[in-house]
Specification:
alpha/beta; seven-stranded mixed sheet; 25% helix
């Protein structure tokens, strides 16, 4: 996925002046995906949030995110430039299971993913972890440090999610530009490392040994 200059010289196509990559932003309902894309995007982000209504009763679990009044029903989209020649197009994926039919379409052509996690609802990010492990798509788990969330050592969270050593876990604030940029840089470094490593790494899985939430004492 690359973009070239719109002009030509002497009838020949111009050499692309940057390389563009598709990055996914995944995670559970209310984990902060829309906030992350909106915080880092250089352009006004495309958002498809709709108000939560009585129609979502029984479908959207609001425990731990009781103040949330909207939900993403399609995708979020933003753009950021890293360095002089790398442009990342960010696609925020809807977190609820009922929208999972869209994941394959959004994942097509993606270079990697950021999975946002909320320790108050840690099990919500496991479907995303499982999905990207199964597809063998490089990803980073970014724990969004909400103000009212309990604090855990990152290693405890890694163990709760049973992450492979090659999948980084970092702490972040989805509202903070510098924090989000650091997450994306970590992902780019992970992708580069995977490309230089032996192909076929990754294991995939179907179900966790036990609930990630239970491992953190929830």
């Amino acid at each position: 996925m690359a973009s070239a200059r719109s002009d030509t010289h002497g009838g020949a196509a111009a050499v692309p002046d940057f390389t563009a990559h598709k990055i996914l932003v995944a995670g559970g309902f209310g984990a902060g995906k829309t906030t992350l894309v909106g915080a880092i995007s250089e352009v006004r982000p495309l958002q498809t949030e709709e108000a939560l209504t009585t129609a979502s009763i029984g479908l959207d679990d609001l425990s731990g995110v009781g103040r949330k009044t909207t939900t993403t029903v399609a995708l979020d989209f933003g753009r950021i430039t890293l360095g002089a020649r790398i442009v990342l197009y960010l696609f925020g994926m809807p977190g609820q299971e009922r929208f999972s039919f869209m994941w394959d379409e959004l994942a097509y052509g993606a270079l990697g993913a950021v999975i946002l996690a909320d320790v108050r609802r840690l099990g919500d990010c496991f479907p995303s972890v499982n999905y990207f492990e199964t597809r063998r798509l490089p990803f980073v788990v970014a724990v969004n440090c909400f103000d009212d969330a309990p604090s855990y050592d990152p290693q405890e969270i890694r163990q709760a999610l049973d992450l492979d050593p090659g999948n980084p876990l970092v702490l972040c604030d989805a509202r903070d530009v510098a924090s989000v940029k650091s997450v994306l840089i970590t992902l780019v470094e992970t992708i580069a490392s995977r490309r230089s490593a032996r192909p076929g790494q990754g294991r995939g899985r179907t179900t966790p040994p036990r609930s990630p939430a239970s491992r953190l004492g929830h």
